[in-house]
Amino acid sequence: MQRTVSRDLKKQITVPEIKKIDIRNLELSDYLGMLRSMEEAYKNWHGSVWTRSQITKLLSVFPEGQFVVLVNGRVVGTALSIVVNYDLFGDDHTYKQITGDYTFKTHDPGGDVLYGIEIFIHSEYRGLRLARRLYDARKELCEKLNLKSIVFGGRIPNYAKYSAELLPKEYIAKVKLKEIHDPVLSFQLANEFHVKKLLNNYMPTDQESKQFATLMEWNNVLYTKSSKILQHHKTTARVGLVQWGMRSFKTFDSLCEQIEFFIDTVSGYNSDFILFPELFNAPLMADFNHQTEAEALRSLADFTEPLRDKFINYAITYNVNVITGSMPFVRGGQLYNVGYLCRRDGSIERYTKIHVTPNEVASWGIVGGNKFKVFDTDAGKIGILICYDVEFPELSRLLALDGMEILFVPFLTDTQNAYTRVKCCAQARAIENECFVAIAGGVGNLPKVHNMDIQYAQSAVFTPADFAFPTNGIKGEATPNTEMVLIVDLELDQLKKLRLHGSVRNLNDRRTDLFELKKLKPNGRFDILQEHANKNYVFNILNPSILK
Question: Using CA of residue 503, residue 509, residue 510, residue 514, what is the dihedral sign?
Fold first, then answer.
């Protein structure tokens, strides 16, 4: 039973002089200090306290789950817990049932939930956030043991003051909105726990809560379900970005030699991914300068499938997932801008540029694709958008809602103005979708290739903006307009923590009661909004009155 009494924020608390604060596992020799703190914490509590024999039993079955906080060497707070197979109890249980009639025989080392049975702080030491330290210790233990969550029944001791006018559900709602302060529930909500259910008769002796309790839960975002098949969960992905130098290549083989050089280099650093820029193979267009720009790009498309096959071989040989940037591709007489994800296990997927720039339409006659998806890899879930696509937030948001962790953006920009659009939009996508965004572009000049004469780029990896990430949201940047490789490590587990416990939670805090984003059917049709049938997404205003 979580009976934490936290500070009344309206009162000024005088605490003893603090020289040292320690958090460690409870030992049986701490019992007297624990007992004094518990009796002082619960002066108005009419229930019984934990006996020495009960604590001895608890320490014998689960010593690592018991914590004490010491101030100047004195035990002033305690947190007790067990591990349970939660399916055996479900949400409708009592305190007596979950503790095995206070014997802790319900503790199951093979269980899936850390169940909190007690936490308290000596009344003289409230206001020092000591209970928060105990909660943090529990969270670390939950992650270490790979348990799904922390669950406990929490008191609502101020409810007795409002029970004549409010139902328990109404009381909880007002505490959530901070219209009412409850010393226990308010504290637990502030420590990232959520109310899972209202319990009745959870602890009959708790008259302050009118025998009600809130079933509280904290979800472990790092939890991975055990499997009979050995699976390796990567927590870090290493990405290599190729800032490709545009220059003349006399033959197809010489272009491939340069591609293989970069893949070999990045593989030497044990990278999980390598990203090439958009239309990196444009130097091969020099042989088609006698053609119109549109004809030349279609001629360049003849090299796409041979390059794809080369990339597949390189991905397997050098043990790295290759994102091939983009290349022209002709299908059904239409010209597309496509690329390939060549996994190191030999599998391959194609992606297509969705949004085509006015210049790409006017000069080359490129048309946009109509399918996009999140790709599963052995180093996380990724999305791939080509250049202009990153300037449309809907695409990235749909990918993020499908679990994307890293967004790769191969791009080609000729001026700093164009590059600024890609860079700023990529940074925005990282923040609003709580993901990493890696961009890679080409640099240098191609004086003998029409419509591809100059390039400007600064490849980079962008992050969300929160404490676990760089303050400027930039994990790494290449030197502008210089051919080079940028290699960056990305901590994937940081994203999971951010999405639940970040300073702001962009994905979670969306007002889905007012608006929603829906992906259309694969054929580009949507039953309700036919006027958007030529798009691959729809932004649907749920409450038209907000537009007035």
Answer: negative
Residues 203-232 have pLDDT tens digits of 777 778 888 999 999 999 888 876 544 445
The pLDDT of residue 547 is above 60? no
DSSP calls for 138-153: HHHHHHHTT-SEEEEE
Q: Residue 273 has which token pair? A: 């991914």
Q: Would you please indicate which residues are annotated as catalytic (active-site) residues?
A: 278, 353, 387
Looking at residues 98-117, what average pLDDT do you find? Answer: 93
The region that residue 506 occupies, defined by phi over 0 for left and psi between -120 and 50 for alpha, beta otherwise, is: alpha
Torsion angle defined by CA atoms of residues 467, 468, 470 and 473, in that order, rounded to the nearest 10 degrees? -80
Task: Determine if the pTM surpasses 0.85.
Answer: no
Single-letter residue type at 362: A
Q: Output the pLDDT for position 15.
A: 52
Among residues 248, 308, 242, 305, the alpha carbon closest in space to that of 442 is found at 242
> Does the pLDDT at position 359 exceed 70?
yes
Number of neighbouring beta carbons within 10 Å of residue 29: 8
The residue behind tokens 């702080």 is 121
Contact between 321 and 377 (Cβ < 8 Å): yes
Burial 273-288 (b: 16+ CB within 10 A, else e): bbbbbbbbbbbbbbeb
Q: With contact defined as beta carbons under 8 Å apart, do 243 and 488 qualify?
A: no
User: Does the pLDDT of residue 260 top 90, yes or no?
Assistant: yes
Contact between 388 and 418 under an 8 Å Cβ cutoff? The reply is: no
The residue whose two tokens read 């067990």 is 82
**What is the torsional sign of CA 500, 506, 510, 515?**
negative
β-bridge mates for residue 352, sequence order? 338
Separation between Cα atoms, residue 189 and residue 34, nearest integer Å? 26
Instruction: Give the tens place of pLDDT for each residue, 409-454.
Output: 999 999 999 999 999 999 999 999 999 999 999 998 887 777 677 8
How far CA 300 is from CA of 205, 304, 306, 330, 378, in Å, comes to 80, 7, 11, 10, 32
Q: Which of 205, 188, 186, 14 is nearest to 95 (CA)?
A: 205
